[in-house]
Amino acid sequence: MNTTFDESIGLNTSHTIRNVIRYLTVHLKEFDLTPEQWTVLKRLAANDGISQKALAELADKDQPTVTRILDILERKNLITKKKNVDDRRSFLIHITDKGKNVKQELTPFIEDVFENQILKGIPEEKLEVYKEVLQLINQNMRDRTD
């Protein structure tokens, strides 16, 4: 079977993303989080007190998705939403002590999963090239969609 270059890159990228998300979903279940929730919580931990819009940009997610995730994280008492005194139409999002504890507990676990499972056996040089290529592809796409 003769696969075109775009099919090969597209399919491999899609399969890789799906497999990583599936793997993380299984392993994050014991922490009662999804990969999407973890992404938002991690970004918030590094940027406590930011607006929902800014958090959506940092997490590279659309506003409705972030709203849904924040509602779930709030029900789990991992975050709080406070009215923005400068803009009453928006909220500022804060991580709670419980959220900080979950983030602190999960960070070494996630790092271990990536280092010893997902990226296992891949030399650092190849990972650097992979990151560079991904950045170039992302830049090419941003240049065409902005």
From TrEMBL:
<dbReference type="InterPro" id="IPR000835">
    <property type="entry name" value="HTH_MarR-typ"/>
</dbReference>
<dbReference type="InterPro" id="IPR036390">
    <property type="entry name" value="WH_DNA-bd_sf"/>
</dbReference>
<keyword id="KW-0805">Transcription regulation</keyword>
<protein>
    <submittedName>
        <fullName>MarR family transcriptional regulator</fullName>
    </submittedName>
</protein>
<dbReference type="GO" id="GO:0003677">
    <property type="term" value="F:DNA binding"/>
</dbReference>
<keyword id="KW-0804">Transcription</keyword>
<keyword id="KW-0238">DNA-binding</keyword>
<dbReference type="GO" id="GO:0006950">
    <property type="term" value="P:response to stress"/>
</dbReference>
<dbReference type="GO" id="GO:0003700">
    <property type="term" value="F:DNA-binding transcription factor activity"/>
</dbReference>
<dbReference type="InterPro" id="IPR039422">
    <property type="entry name" value="MarR/SlyA-like"/>
</dbReference>
<dbReference type="InterPro" id="IPR036388">
    <property type="entry name" value="WH-like_DNA-bd_sf"/>
</dbReference>
<dbReference type="Pfam" id="PF01047">
    <property type="entry name" value="MarR"/>
</dbReference>
<feature type="domain" description="HTH marR-type">
    <location>
        <begin position="1"/>
        <end position="139"/>
    </location>
</feature>
